[in-house]
């Protein structure tokens, strides 16, 4: 927190000069520079493209690895002007950003990474409350970074959905505990950083995750069975700006940022697809991970989603959206199995 306070003071001085004149913007992120995954590479792509499209007039300096603000500090740091750009792990802030966390209440859902990103773009363009929710915190969304489509990684084979019964499955957030209970499993709340050891020691038998993330966290070293259970993509990260920094840009630069945000989704999704393909190839060869398809249909997922516990979570979001003046029905329709 000391680094965050110091950065606030520096940012306040910079803003007093005038954000519209800034030529070097600051991007604060939790991602390590050497991560090498789609999230880190696409961040670097955005930064490089910004310099290129502004003809070098403006640049972005990235402060990697939480060096300025940790994951849970970034919204406050952006709002305070510590950073001009930053990536926010949206599910960490369901009460602050309930609308922008809509997907997190609708797990499982049928959309993939690109489709979730496109839905977020659509909702921001068509429903003013999505942007206003962020503006209330001094933030502007300039891009969207959904996570990959998830299955379930286990330490033992799961040949059918019935085999999830009695399994201890890693859980988090609002929707996953109810999904796990609907499958007959026992939800166990464990942090991402602690899941490797939990799988290794048998504290949990399975965890919902996608291939690229499973490899990134090395969970596939201790859990060798990936179940193609169609949970869908979760919404992950907002690419956000300090609202004053965004509004202080000249019209040309602001238009470049807007277009970069639109282009970003396709670039990121392509990188994520490449990562997943590489991981699946490694699973088949040197890593020895067995992929199991339990034969779950769209109809099966629709039936599961009708579970009372799952519906309770969805009703919670519907009530929040309604209270904010949003018609939830069109959004819900996009997130249901049909």
From TrEMBL:
Residues 1-22 form the signal peptide. Keywords: Signal. Gene3D superfamilies: Bacterial extracellular solute-binding protein, family 7. InterPro entries: DctP_fam, TRAP_DctP_sf. The keyword Signal applies. One of its GO terms (biological process) is transmembrane transport. PANTHER family: BLL6794 PROTEIN, PTHR33376. This is TRAP transporter substrate-binding protein DctP.
